[in-house]
Amino acid sequence: MSRDRTNRNLRLSTRAIHHGYDPSEHQGAVAPPVYFTSTYTFGTVEETEAAAAQGGLLYAREHNPTTEILEARLANLEGAEAGVVVASGMAAIGTLILSLLSQGDEIVVHKTLYSNTRSLMKGGLPRFGIKVVPVDFTNPLKLARAITSKTRIVYFETPVNPTAKVLDIAAIAAVAHHVGALVVVDSTFASPAVQRPLEFGADLVVHSLTKYINGHGDVLGGAVLGRKDLVAQIHDHGVRYLTGATISPMAAALIMRGLKTLSLRMDRHATSALKVAEFLEAHPAVAWVNYPYLKSGDSYSIARRQMANGSGMLSFGLKRGFEGARSLLGHLELITCAVSLGDAETLISHPATLNCARKKIRPEATLAPGVGEDLIRLSVGLEDDADLIDDLQQALAHAS
Ligand code: PLP
Q1: Long-range contacts of residues 174-181, Cβ cutoff 8 Å, at least 24 apart
Q2: Domains of the chain by range and CATH?
C-alpha cells in the first residue's frame, strides 16, 4: 500500500519526518535508503539517451535519489517550489551567485554578513567583474539609493551572523522588487521551523544545513530553496559544471535524520536561549545583549512578526570589552569554545579573537561593520538551561 504523505494537508513537524518519501517504493524501508553510486545504468542506448534528455538518473553529480528526498522535503518546509542541496552552506551561496550573476551585474548586500560570505563578496566576486555594494539594510532609504538598474540580487541574513539582529524581510523585499531585483535570504540562524522568508516576499532562501537543520555537528551541507526556474538554473548550471559542489548521499541521509527532530530542537533552543539572554541582561558585568525575542531589544517587533520564536543564537558584550570576552571564554567549564552553531552542544565564539588569529595569515582581515571587538556569539544548545547559566555565572565572576 502506498504511504506517500506528500499531498496531504500535514503540519510542519509531521512533514519534516514524512514528506517526499514513500516506503512502498523502497522495499518498505522506513528510513530512506542511502544510494551510494556514482553512476546509473540503462538497458539500451536509446534508454540512456532518453534519461539524459529528460534530466533523469545518469550521474550522481546531478541526481541522487537520497539527496532528492531531502531537496523535496526542505523545499516543502520552506514553502518553496523547488530546492537544491549541495556540499556546504558556502557551496550553496557560491553556486547560487555564479549561476545567477554575470560580469557587469551588481549585488547589494547587508553590511554585516557571516565572515566567509563577506570574503566571497569582498574578495571573490569583484575578481569576476561583479560589483558588490554593502549597505545598512536597517535603513530602507539607504537600500533604495544603493540599488541601480544593474542590481540583480539583494542579499542578506536574518538573524544576522554574528550579531543575531533581525532584518525586516517584507520591507527589504518591497524595495528590491520595485526594481525587479531578486531577494535572497540566508535563514541559517532560524531554520524553517522558526522562519520562512518566502512567506515575506523573498525569492530564494539559503541554508547552511551544517547548523540547525542537521543539528548534530557532524556533517556539512547547504541548500537553496525557492522558485522552480531559479533552482533549475542553479542545479543545471551551478551544480553540474560551475562548482560541481555535490553533497555525499551519506551526508544527505544524516541531515534527513537530523531534520526529523528540527521542530522539537528549535523549541528547546529558543526556550533556553531566552532564559540565558534574560540572565545575561540582568548581570552587572554585561554591557548589552542582542536576542531576537528579548522584549527590551530593537529586533523584538520585527522578530515577533517574522519568527515563531527567537531561535538559539544571541550575542552580547561585557563592560570589560575585548579583554572581558577573552577572560570569559577562558573560564567556561561546560560551554564549548567553537565557531559553528545550531548543535546540541552550546558553542561560544569571540570573532575579534578569531580575527586577530586570522590577521597573522591574512593581514587584510577585518571584523564586519556592526561587529565590535567586545562581541561574543553564543549558540545555545540542548543542555539543561540551569547548567548553562551556572557555567556563565561562574565564568562571569572572572570577567567582571
Ligand atoms: N551562512 C551562515 C549564516 C553561516 O553561519 C555559515 C557558517 O557558519 C554559512 C552560511 C556557511 O555554511 P557552511 O559552513 O555549511 O559552508
Answers
A1: 174/201, 175/140, 175/143, 175/144, 175/147, 176/108, 176/143, 176/147, 176/151, 177/201, 178/144, 179/147, 179/148, 179/149, 179/151, 181/108, 181/147, 181/151, 181/152, 181/153, 181/154
A2: 12-259 (3.40.640.10), 262-399 (3.90.1150.10)
